[in-house]
Amino acid sequence: MTSPRWMILVCFSLISVFGTGESLTIIVPEISNEQNSLPAIIAQMSRAIADLNASHKKLLVQQSRSGCNCNPSSLQACYSQRNLANRRLSSCNSQVRSLGAQRSSLLRQVSGLRSQYAAVVKQRDVLQGQLNVFVRYQNYGWKYYRGSFYYFSTSKANWQASRNYCTARGADLVVINDAFENNFTREVKRIAWIGLYRSGSNWRWVDGSYLSSRASYWAPKEPNNSGNREDRGEIWLYNNIENWNDAPWADANYWICEKKV
Ligand code: MMA
Ligand code: CA
Fold this sequence. Notes:
Bound molecules: methyl alpha-D-mannopyranoside, calcium ion
Number of helices: 4
Oligomer: single chain
């Protein structure tokens, strides 16, 4: 046997592993004395082989975890998986943008609905109030006509006591605004107080308005302030359209109350 110098250098350098960045270097050192160290060389080589096997196993495990391996057809499969994943990602991104836009639109709708709801609640409260008034005067037995409830008294009193009866019930003596109301009130077929009074030379309604600005239905030659003591209005010639008379406030008459609803 010759004694050549064995020079064994095995170098695995930078074996890159998919995505792990791990590298592996195994160096089997230079051996100078063949005869004396052959068993040692064999032992070292065996250890090197065992190390390589262990590394190989480790790499296989990492490779299988990565889901890819390095032969060309597998790489092609990896690329198409990557492309598919990219397409899905960009589709997800556009869905995210679209959902964002839908969200803002829904938020705008919600705030619109909130204000509509508040408006409806307000309307409901107004209607509830009106309904309460209707139920109340209906229960009193008052008659409804064109937006008002009316009470036709069954007893007589002076003008002020008559008015007090009405105001105690949230109403007032009737204010006659037009021909419909004039015809409706003279259906009482009795002499009856209405909400008309003289203040100085002016005739006014109990709602504060001046008769001069309204339709009036005085009987012929009325008001005449007979005896210089007539200062309140009454339904008098109820069979005529022109039917009002002025009379002294202290007269005992029937009366008519009105509650606008
Ligand atoms: C009565 C009284 C007056 C009315 C006259 C009309 C006598 O007085 O009702 O208010 O004006 O009649 O003749
Ligand atoms: Ca008169």
